[in-house]
Amino acid sequence: MEIDDRKLNILHAIIRDYITTGEPVGSRTIAKKYDLGISSATIRNEMADLEDMGYIEHLHTSSGRKPSDKGYRLYVDKLMKINKLPQAEEIMIKEYLLQAALFEVDKIIKQASALLSELTQLTCVVKTPSVNKSAVKTIQLIGIDNNTVLMVLVTDSGIIKHSVMKVDKVPNNEALLILNTVLNDNLKGLTCEQINLSVINNLKRYTEGYDAFFNEILTALYENLSHEDDRSDLYMEGTTNIFNYPEYNDITKAKDFLSLIYNKDNMSSLLNSRDGISVKIGTENFIEEAKDVSFISAVYRMGDKPLGTFGLIGPTRIDYSRVIGVMAEVTRELNTLLKGESNYRP
After folding, report:
1. Are residues 103 and 26 in the same domain?
2. What is the pLDDT of residues 226-267, one digit of tens each?
3. Each residue's pLDDT tens digit, 32-61
4. Rounded to whole angstroms, how far apart are CA atoms 290 and 303?
5. Angle between the 197-206 and 211-225 helix axes, to the nearest 10 degrees?
């Protein structure tokens, strides 16, 4: 059976009403609230067809219907219009992120996730830039006293790491300057895996006489560039926002949701998105525990380099138009900001 314009209009009305109220929708409700130009009886017949086609579902405890995952998918793909955000919100997003730009990149990302959670009233989970996949951008050695050196490492993904090293004797300023130059000339653009024995042996030729000091630098460098469990780079905001939805007053549903978002394996898998904004609805999520939620995600980047992924998670009846609009605006402003940050110099 083909879905015609009348059925599409009724489906659109059902979805809009259910997103707003969370209550099953009946034909009388549609007839009264939406000027479709057809009778309640006609709407009821069309709703029966929509149910047969799998776009809406009948709740046994009510005479009303609710959208199915298939119905939401049609809505997102064909019926929904993403409205431009109010100018006041666009200005607020821009100003908030500009203020966050005073911090290091990972903190900017966390600030952006807090903003996404606040504006959508959903749980935001973000995969912060991966240290494992980052390469050296600059290294700076700074003498603190006779036995203490501060190493500042900046990666190409904007991560900044600080290491305080205790050594027998700190080289003089002239020697530190030479060592800084040697390290940057030889390590810039290399990841932890690429700093192999050949690279190390080549460096030792230029650091002769500073063997013990060089070994301390190398140890600190590996500690900062390696990360045993990349999944721990997940950060979350707004975990209790789900309780704004009355259906999650059900203890079992609430526990299931919290178990889902606090499972790092699940969240890490859901955050493996491609470019653009991805919308996964209910059973479209390949994780069984996520079959009752929707997951909207977007990749953020520094210039051409993808850094990580934002995800917004909530019930399938979220306001898709609003959520996608906010996600698009925040990631757009963030990407613009990070592109400027790529020119950062410590």
Report:
1. no
2. 654 444 478 899 998 998 898 888 888 888 999 999 888 888
3. 998 888 999 999 999 999 999 999 998 765
4. 32
5. 140
Residue that terminates a domain, selected from 57, 79, 101: 79
337 in the same domain as 248: yes
Q: What is the share, in percent, of the chain residues with pLDDT greater than 90? A: 40
Given 53, 79, 105, the domain boundary residue is 79
* Contacts for 160 with CB less than 8 Å, ≥ 6 apart: 104, 105, 152, 153, 154, 346
Residue 290, in any domain of the structure? yes
Does 243 map to a domain? yes
Report the predicted TM-score, pTM, of the whole model to 2 decimal places: 0.75
pLDDT tens column, 205-231 = 888 788 888 888 888 887 777 654 444
Largest CA distance in the chain: 92
Residue with tokens 């119905």: 71
Region 86-102: what's the mean pLDDT?
86
